[in-house]
User: Fold this.
Amino acid sequence: MSVDEDNITELAVRLWATAHSPRLGELMTALVRHLHESPVRCGSPRTSGRPRSSG
Assistant:
């Protein structure tokens, strides 16, 4: 599976969900989701309608 901006959050969450410590997995998945949603809420250039660069 290739990693891109559309699936990076779910991939990171899946990986942290398998942490040896259930509490660490829970905290890290929450942190990953929170940080990955921040650019959307803050209106980053990627969400402002500008085309993505190809490089």
Remarks:
- The longest helix spans residues 22-42.
- The CA atoms of residues 13 and 29 lie 5 Å apart.
- The radius of gyration is 14 Å.
